[in-house]
Amino acid sequence: MTEPRVRPDPAFALLGLYETALPEVYGYLLSRCGDRTLAEELTSETFLGAVAACRKEYAPPVSTGWLIGVARHKLADHWRRKEREERGLRLVHDSEPAVDDPWDEQLDALRARQVLGSLGPHHRAALTLRYVDGLGVPEVAGHLGRSVHATEALLVRARAAFRRAYEEKEGRDA
């Protein structure tokens, strides 16, 4: 009589990758959210989500790039959650005119990071996904759970808010 074969847990593939992928995932998240505690929480959520995904029947191959993709989704989920919370606490009145605004000045990277961190989560998420991660508008829309048209309008408002805050900070720093 032969003993039944036990299938190894597919999540063990993550164990071998953990030590090299952890700093990559954490660094990716920290560079986008600027908050160590949040980056640590999202890194934890990323690996927990990856373990669950690995155990599914048609799991994708495990790699650092795939984990970064999971982290991007976790960060977008966080921003969506935070925006819903803030929207519930205040009345949103956005009546910014839609203006094509090609801003061709050089931006100071440190000031830009500070300004980005000061924006609301919906603006920060849209600008980060579009300009830091380099995603197209349809991909940004998918991550944010919005239509392409609504995402384009959000990006216009987010760019205007960023520019306004950047110029105000520039005036205070000068």
Structural account:
The protein is built from seven helices and no strands. With 174 residues, it is mostly helical. Helix 5 crosses helix 7. The relative contact order is 0.10. About 7% of the residues have low confidence.
Unreliable residue runs: 91-97, 101-105
| Largest sheet features | none
Order of helices and strands: HHHHHHH
- Mean pLDDT figure: 81
User: Would you count the extended β strands for me?
Assistant: 0
Percent helix among the residues?
over 70%
Shape: elongated
Task: Give a brief description.
With 174 residues, this protein is mostly helical.
Features:
7 helices
Topology diagram in text:
Layout: H1 12-33, H2 36-54, H3 64-89, H4 109-118, H5 121-132, H6 137-144, H7 148-173
Helix pairs in contact: 1-2, 1-3, 2-3, 3-5, 4-7, 5-6, 5-7, 6-7
